[in-house]
């Protein structure tokens, strides 16, 4: 109303140079409204308002008088020098109009501000969030869900987000092998959850219980990221309206392999990777002063169980690392070093095509990795592993990458699970029979609606599922229809050694069609793609810096932790 | 979706009076200054002395009443004074005087306006500048700004550095038109080297004075650029139009013909001003960043890098709106093939692609320069218009001919030919700024959820009450009017 009135009053100035008075009044009134809306009706001083509106008169002259009016009347815009000179009277009128508009709008603003009295502005009621969304798990699935929820809900303050994680950072697992291989600094592939999320409350703690009936989550806040809860744990309780299970998976050892579990190193977390790196360095230090060739051979033998992505990438990275640091140990020879990969099937990398699996096998063999295919671990002790074929390999370093299972916490919940222990969800990723309960990532079992096949437990799918979950939570919040999750893999990439990788990328819009790359190009592709996916610009810069440094300087062999006992296995020394 | 507008509501500059009844003293000072300006105006321009004295007194009175609460430093006062002078000229000599003498039909005729050009120079130099400075000095003594802390050393070093760099760019044009020997004549040595030395010294001093005058008003790169252009235009009126002939012993010539002859210098001063503003802001920000912001104690929840990346992205996205609007003008004027020549082609389609790429780059620079400068949409549009105008001077008149292998075309003829593009640049600036503000606001809605970030935004966003409106009026007014009027 202020804008309309002030625009109407000011339009008489425009009418002095415009041919049509009704047009001038209409235009003046519309611009008056736009002016007050654009400047938010905030009280200024007269000089602020007058000069601002007068200044805006100049471009208005250019847009309206020079371009719009001639075009409407079927003439070309008057934007030549001569044309503009003939329009100068209207320029003066527009500036005057602006000045009067500013004056009138400010005057009316002041009058209306004092009209109802100073008590008319009531304090706004405090914001009370009505919906609480709790995400359990700070991995790819949980983090991506939180990010997506923040995006779809925007600044809606009627909802709060809480993310519970046993670590305070997101680990970028595709680069974990490079940490074990001393190419990357450990911190550089982890992004703090707190700095990556804008409005999500991050709670570091371990989930010890979930009450689905009363919508409560129980946390142990013992200050440790892992390990069992103890009587001294401080417990914390969270209420939720929506609960997202993104608890991921844990390393799994078959029940018959308790010896292996006791002596193997895991390869799942950042401390795991650091531990492997330090173990390798430790073995080299001990082997360097070892006079017995057999014992030296044992120390420098590294066995990796599992020929999937994790095992192959780790074998490639350890092989490069171990053979690279030989130069620093004068008493050791290349023949002393053995990196052995044990795999139950007849070819490695079953996720990729046979051709790429064969390529990886040949290239890695050529670089010194030994493969034990169609075989599996049968037993292990402190200085040897035994294969099912009966072969005994003398080693003090065994890394297990051969299996994971969904988080065992899920077993405590009264919900349906598949034989792996993953939560069975419907096509919208909701847990059937439980309002507001969702699951995704490694801990969820969801099937492709078209093929009927389960979606693989990979980061790529987890991040896409996160979008679907966030969308569906938002949709249910607003009473809209939920969307089923559909996604087709974009492909897979695997680094197998120095400047060498395998890549299999699906062709868009063509089902079951993929293109394959290998060698340097695939390696560059791997680095480019994963660097772009690494969360946070600062992390990208740090990793890129590490990669550049690696080109010119040898890998770091500083031993950061001592690992002679099993106590380190619990993460207490990290 | 609800928002909390109260958190980001711009804060007015708080003024704490040191002594009582400041308005009466301000009015007396301004009337006195206005009367002196009126006397000087009467001496320089053909106006009767009594009328001039009376007008000067009235101007002083009006200026004091309107802007005594805004003129809180010499720099702020100066800018308000310049905007006030232009508005006065548009209302009185270019308007009311003609209406009284010849009726409404005489308003804004090009010959009338050209005849009033000496009055424009007089209003800027004899009313606007002294009134603003005097009231600003009085205001600076009277009030204590609550936020900014003035660093004399930073102003001199950053300003001097900016002045040197701006002077170097301006000097390239001066060298081309052989102006250095003329400048060297000021020290009785008509050589290129002495002219270059004098020019560099003057450029450095003006840059340092820029820092001293405007440090407390400048917040970001974009506003600094606006302040710089304003200061550059002022120095065109002050330097080649006034001081140079006086030092050379020539009579003052404030006619529009003389102004037209100095049009190249006008563009040069604008380019000099924007470089001074920009470099000053960069040096100033670097100074603050290196000595203050990098201190972990002062660490903010949202790092500067994050906000910079957001701004670049928003600027690029926003430029799509501006670039598409501008392309309509380019299509209508047949300018796209000429744009394609920048990459060695002639196809309109290629020209369109090049135009969009340039738009995106300029949009990104807008995002980088003008983040947090606008407390509302209208202010955002005003900054965008100013930036569009600046790029009209920088683009078609400066960079475009140079990139095509030619030389600087700072002439009224070249400006006249590029006037259709001026409309396009203004459209581009307004649309880009509006789209940018929408994107920036969307982000700010998040920010408001975190009280720490919300408080930081309020602190960093330009408040209402700085001389930005005067800058918009002065730069947009003269930047659009003079190329038309002087041609």
Describe the secondary structure blueprint for this structure:
The complex is a heterodimer of chains A (574) and B (487).
Chain A: H1 2-15, H2 21-38, H3 46-72, H4 81-86, H5 88-114, E1 131-136, H6 140-153, E2 159-165, E3 169-171, H7 176-180, E4 190-192, H8 193-196, E5 201-204, E6 206-211, E7 216-220, E8 235-239, E9 242-245, E10 249-251, H9 258-263, E11 265-266, H10 270-288, H11 293-299, E12 301-305, H12 309-324, E13 338-342, H13 354-366, E14 369-372, E15 377-381, E16 384-387, E17 392-394, E18 397-400, E19 404-406, E20 423-424, E21 437-439, E22 444-445, H14 459-477, E23 491-497, E24 500-506, E25 514-519, H15 520-533, H16 537-552
Helix pairs in contact in A: 1-2, 1-5, 3-5, 6-14, 10-11
Chain B: H1 5-8, H2 22-44, H3 49-67, H4 74-102, H5 110-115, H6 117-142, H7 152-176, H8 180-184, H9 192-214, H10 221-247, H11 256-261, H12 263-293, H13 304-333, H14 336-340, H15 348-370, H16 377-403, H17 412-417, H18 419-447, H19 451-460, H20 468-485
């Amino acid at each position: 109303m202020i804008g309309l009135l002030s625009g109407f009053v000011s339009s008489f100035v425009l009418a002095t140079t415009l041919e049509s008075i009704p047009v001038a009044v209409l235009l003046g009134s519309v611009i008056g409204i736009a002016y007050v809306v654009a400047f938010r009706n905030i009280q200024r001083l007269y000089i602020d308002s007058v000069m601002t509106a007068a200044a805006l008169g100049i471009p208005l002259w250019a847009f309206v008088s020079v371009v719009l009016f001639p075009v409407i009347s079927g003439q070309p815009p008057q934007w030549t020098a001569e044309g503009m000179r003939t329009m100068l009277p209207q320029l003066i009128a527009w500036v005057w109009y602006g000045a009067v508009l500013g004056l009138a709008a400010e005057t009316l603003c002041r009058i209306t501000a004092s009209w109802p009295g100073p008590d008319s502005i009531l304090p706004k009621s405090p914001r009370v969030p009505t919906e609480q969304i709790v995400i359990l798990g700070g991995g790819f699935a949980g983090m991506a869900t939180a990010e997506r929820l923040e995006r779809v809900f925007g600044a809606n303050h009627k909802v709060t987000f809480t993310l519970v994680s046993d670590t305070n950072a997101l680990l970028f697992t595709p680069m974990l092998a490079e940490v074990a291989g001393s190419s990357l600094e450990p911190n550089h592939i982890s992004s703090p959850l707190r700095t990556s999320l804008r409005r999500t409350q991050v709670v570091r703690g371990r989930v010890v219980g979930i009450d689905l009936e009363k919508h409560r989550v129980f946390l142990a806040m013992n200050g440790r990221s892992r390990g069992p809860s103890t009587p001294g744990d401080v417990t914390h309780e969270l209420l939720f309206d929506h609960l997202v299970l993104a608890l991921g998976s844990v390393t799994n050892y078959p029940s018959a392999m308790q010896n292996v579990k006791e002596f193997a190193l895991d390869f799942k977390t950042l401390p795991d990777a650091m531990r492997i790196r330090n173990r390798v360095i430790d073995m080299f230090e001990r082997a360097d002063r070892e006079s017995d060739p057999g014992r030296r051979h044992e120390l420098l033998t590294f066995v990796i169980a599992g020929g999937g992505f994790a095992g192959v990438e780790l074998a490639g990275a350890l092989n490069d690392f171990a053979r690279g640091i030989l130069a620093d140990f004068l008493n050791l020879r290349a023949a002393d070093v053995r990196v052995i990969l044990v795999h139950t099937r007849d070819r490695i990398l079953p996720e990729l095509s046979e051709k790429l699996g064969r390529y990886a096998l040949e290239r890695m063999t050529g670089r010194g990795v030994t493969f034990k295919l169609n075989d599996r671990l049968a037993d292990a002790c402190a200085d040897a592993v035994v294969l099912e074929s009966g072969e005994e390999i003398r080693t003090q370093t065994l890394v297990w990458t051969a299996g994971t299972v969904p988080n065992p916490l899920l077993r405590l919940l009264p919900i349906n699970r598949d034989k792996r222990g993953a939560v069975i969800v419907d096509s919208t990723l909701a847990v059937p029979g439980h309002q507001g309960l969702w699951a995704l990532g490694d801990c969820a079992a969801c099937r492709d609606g078209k093929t009927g096949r389960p979606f693989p437990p990979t980061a790529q799918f987890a991040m896409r599922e996160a979008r679907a979950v966030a969308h569906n939570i938002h949709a249910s919040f607003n009473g809209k229809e939920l969307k089923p999750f559909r996604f087709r893999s974009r492909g897979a990439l695997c680094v197998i050694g120095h400047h060498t990788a395998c890549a299999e990328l699906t062709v868009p819009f063509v089902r079951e069609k993929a293109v394959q790359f290998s060698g340097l190009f695939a390696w560059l592709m791997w680095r480019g793609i994963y660097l772009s996916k690494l969360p946070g610009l600062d992390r990208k810069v740090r990793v890129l810096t590490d990669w550049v440094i690696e080109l010119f300087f040898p890998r770091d062999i500083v031993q950061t932790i001592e690992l002679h006992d099993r106590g380190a296995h619990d993460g207490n020394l990290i | 979706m609800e928002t909390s507008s109260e958190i980001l509501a711009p804060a007015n500059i708080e003024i704490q009076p040191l002594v009582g009844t400041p308005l009466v003293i301000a009015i007396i000072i301004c009337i006195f200054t206005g009367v002196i300006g009126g006397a000087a105006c009467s001496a320089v321009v053909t106006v009767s002395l009594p009328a001039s004295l009376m007008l000067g007194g009235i101007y002083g009175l009006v200026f004091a009443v309107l802007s005594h609460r805004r003129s809180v430093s010499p720099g702020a006062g100066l800018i308000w004074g310049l905007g006030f002078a232009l508005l006065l000229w548009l209302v009185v000599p270019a308007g009311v005087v003609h209406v009284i003498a010849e009726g409404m039909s005489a308003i804004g005729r090009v010959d009338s306006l050209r005849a009033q050009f000496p009055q424009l120079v007089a209003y800027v130099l004899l009313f606007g500048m002294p009134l603003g400075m005097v009231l600003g000095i009085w205001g600076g003594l009277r009030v204590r700004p609550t936020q900014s802390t003035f660093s004399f050393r930073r102003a001199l070093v950053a300003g001097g550095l900016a002045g040197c760099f701006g002077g170097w760019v301006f000097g390239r044009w001066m060298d081309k038109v052989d102006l250095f020997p003329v400048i060297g004549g000021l020290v009785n040595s008509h050589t290129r080297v002495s002219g270059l030395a004098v020019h560099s010294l003057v450029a450095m001093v003006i840059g340092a004075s820029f820092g001293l005058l405007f440090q407390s008003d400048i917040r970001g790169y974009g506003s600094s650029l606006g302040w710089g252009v304003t200061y550059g235009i002022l120095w065109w009126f002050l330097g080649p139009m006034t001081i140079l002939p006086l030092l050379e012993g020539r009579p003052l010539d404030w006619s529009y013909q003389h102004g037209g002859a100095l049009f190249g210098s006008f563009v040069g001063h604008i380019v000099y001003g924007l470089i001074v503003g920009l470099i000053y802001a960069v040096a100033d920000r670097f100074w603050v960043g290196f000595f203050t912001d990098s201190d972990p104690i002062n660490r903010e929840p949202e790092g500067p890098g994050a906000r910079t990346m957001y701004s670049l992205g928003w600027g690029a996205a926003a430029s799509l709106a501006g670039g598409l609007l501008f392309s309509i003008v380019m299509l209508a004027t047949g300018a796209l093939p000429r744009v394609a020549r920048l990459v060695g082609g002639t196809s309109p389609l290629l020209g369109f692609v090049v135009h969009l790429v340039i738009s995106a780059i300029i949009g990104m620079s807008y995002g980088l320069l003008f983040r947090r400068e606008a407390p509302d949409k209208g202010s955002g549009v005003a900054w965008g218009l100013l930036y569009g105008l600046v790029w009209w001077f920088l683009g078609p008149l400066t960079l475009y001919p140079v990139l095509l292998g030619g030389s600087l075309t700072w002439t009224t003829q070249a400006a006249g030919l590029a006037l259709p593009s001026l409309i396009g640049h203004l459209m581009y600036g307004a649309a880009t700024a509006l789209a940018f503000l929408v994107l920036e606001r969307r982000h700010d809605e998040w920010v408001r959820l975190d009280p720490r970030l919300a408080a930081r935004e309020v602190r960093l966003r330009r408040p209402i009450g700085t001389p930005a409106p005067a800058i918009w009026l002065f730069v947009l007014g003269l930047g659009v009017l003079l190329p038309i009027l002087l041609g």
